[in-house]
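Task: fold both queries, return tokens.
Query 1:
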Amino acid sequence: MSQHTVIIIGSGFGGQSAAIALREHGIEDFVILERREFMGGTWLQNTYPGAAVDVQSPLYCLSGEPWDWTQMFAEQQELADYIAMFPGFSFTFRRLTGRFRPEHHAFA
């Protein structure tokens, strides 16, 4: 069974942001768990004409990584472009099976 210092649930904007912050603090022993076969979370899963953020685009900026947004409420592709500029993560899809057993602190 693999063990990691940190486990991040979900590969969306928040999960990727957490991974970036860990790397900035010298922590490389982490895993990102994702239920889908691709990374990116809601912004890559839900596509429809006119998809855009519902809060001001600058709130998506990570500290030290400014972006010159083209509009106050960015469309889906612009947010995807912003996220794509961050360091990549190796990603191997593995479907988790079983249930989390809190008494064992593990999936079984």
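Query 1 returned. Query 2:
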Amino acid sequence: MVDVKCYGAATRQKGSGQISDLSINGALVTHTEITPVRGELVGISLDSPDGAILLVGWVVRHVDQGFAIEFDHLNEKTAAFINNAAAIVPSRGRGRQQED
């Protein structure tokens, strides 16, 4: 798991959490202090060897102590980071997961 900072655009919540699943399509953020609403745009920032990475996406579902986001847009640097992040953040599967 990777420690991150979370920012909710609509609710203006700020807090921390952990990315526990990451793919090119989205991320699962757990152990978080914020509860963004479904459909809210959320920013997730984390440190990488090449500098800070900002992941931006829409909340698509809630889980115990967290939420899942679908990325809005990834630039080349961010996409490359995610593709190389398998050693840091495990992914349970690639591609879009079904709604609950």
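Both queries returned. Flag for query 2: Residues 28 and 86 are 14 Å apart (CA to CA).
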